[in-house]
Amino acid sequence: MDDGKARMVQLYRKRARRYDFTANLFYLIGFREWAYRKQAVAALHLRPGDTVVEIGCGTGLNFSLLEDAVGPQGRVIGVDLTDAMLDRARQRVRYKGWTNVELVECDAAGFRFPESTDAVLATFAIKAMPDYDAIIRQAAEALPAGRCFVFLELVEPGWCPGWLRWLMIRLLSPFGANEDNAAYRPEAVLKRYFPRVLMKTRYFGVALIAVGIAGEAES
Ligand SMILES: C[S@@+](CC[C@H](N)C(=O)[O-])C[C@H]1O[C@@H](n2cnc3c(N)ncnc32)[C@H](O)[C@@H]1O
3-state class of 132 per DSSP? Predict the structure, then answer.
C-alpha cells in the first residue's frame, strides 16, 4: 500500500467509531445527507435479486437502502480499504440480521467485480481514491448494458470563490479532503467510460449525483 492510502487508512481508523455521528453533523449546515443517499440509491434502479457492489462502503450507512431495494434474494457487496470502518459495517450487518451482505477489505482499485454485478455505488468515497479512473473503468466493464454506476460526491461548483474552496477543503480534511483530491474529476472520467451519463446537483451545486449507464461490451 502506498503512503497516501496508508494515511487514508490511519485517518479512517481514527474516524470509524464516531463516523456515523460526525457525518450527521453536516445537517447543521442544511446538508441533507440522507436525502442525497436515497436519491443516489434510487438512481441505481435496483431490482429484487440484484447484486450491488458498494465501493468505499465505510460503516455501511447505505446498506439499509440497498437491502430494501435488492431484497433477501439479492446480494450486497461492500468494499473498503479500512478495517475499522468495515468492523462497524459488520456490527451493523449482524445487528440487522442481514445474511446477504459480504464485506471485502481491499483497495477498490484491486477489487475484481463479480460477473453477477448489476450495479455499483460509491457515496462520498470516489474522491478518496487516487485510482478512480481505473476503478470507474473496471466498473463500466463489469456492468451489463443498461445497468448503472452511481456516485454521490462533493464537488466544487462553477461559482465557487477561492476562499470557499479553501474553507471546504479545511472543513472536510477530517474526512481525507486535500488539495490533491479536490482536483479529482470523477464526473469527467464517467463520461469517458459510460456511453450515457446523467448528473444532478444538490445543495447549491456542491453535492453531485452522477449516473453512468453501461453500454454493450466491446468485442
Ligand atoms: C467518507 S468515507 C464514505 C463512507 C461511506 N461510503 C458513506 O457514504 O458513509 C470514505 C471511505 O472510503 C474508504 N476508502 C478510501 N480509499 C479507498 C480505496 N482506495 N479503496 C476502498 N475504500 C477506500 C475509506 O476507508 C472510507 O471508509
Answer: helix
